[in-house]
Backbone:
């Protein structure tokens, strides 16, 4: 006897025999109020389908309509490309002086001096193979601040770059985007 048939049978008191108990009646859930029946004459197939509105989509990264503009991504991509060219020796670090705060520029220039010193000691060339921007992600915190996460590829190796760009007004009253924080990974 299987466990299924044993559970469906009850033991009678005072009797060693087993008796089958009736199965409980089937209970049907009430139909969904939004469900309707289709006519059997085929008229529903000739009518256009009425679709319910799609559920809202959740996204971890904001879509272009929510705080990211194409010009901001374009500006960030160009800045990251300039950083890569300076790091590779194809462009002098002084070209980035106006695009960085003094503290960020000093730290970046010191890093480039250390890299150049290591290259000269190890006998490496002054210009390394050109790196490429693989991807750029931009989050506009507000109209004047953006945070950028980028990935570069050089010699088959990937590196991460994170930076913050802020819109600043210079002494002449011109607005320009300045890098206020920079981290290489």
Residues:
């Amino acid at each position: 006897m299987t466990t299924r048939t044993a559970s469906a049978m009850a033991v009678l008191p005072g009797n060693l025999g087993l008796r089958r108990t009736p199965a409980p009646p089937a209970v049907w859930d009430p139909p969904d109020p939004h469900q309707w029946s289709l006519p059997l004459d085929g008229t529903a197939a000739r009518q256009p389908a009425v679709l319910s509105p799609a559920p809202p989509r959740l996204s971890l990264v904001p879509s272009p309509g929510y705080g990211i503009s194409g010009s901001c991504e374009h500006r960030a991509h160009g800045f990251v490309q300039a950083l890569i060219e300076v790091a590779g020796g194809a462009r002098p670090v002084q070209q980035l002086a106006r695009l960085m705060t003094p503290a960020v520029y000093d730290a970046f220039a010191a890093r480039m001096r250390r890299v150049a010193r290591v290259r000269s000691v190890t006998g490496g060339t002054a210009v390394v193979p050109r790196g490429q921007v693989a991807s750029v992600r931009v989050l506009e915190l507000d109209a004047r601040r953006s945070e950028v996460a980028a990935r570069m590829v050089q010699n088959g190796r990937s590196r991460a770059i994170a930076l913050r760009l802020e819109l600043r007004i210079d002494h002449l009253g011109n607005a320009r985007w300045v890098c206020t924080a920079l981290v290489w990974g």
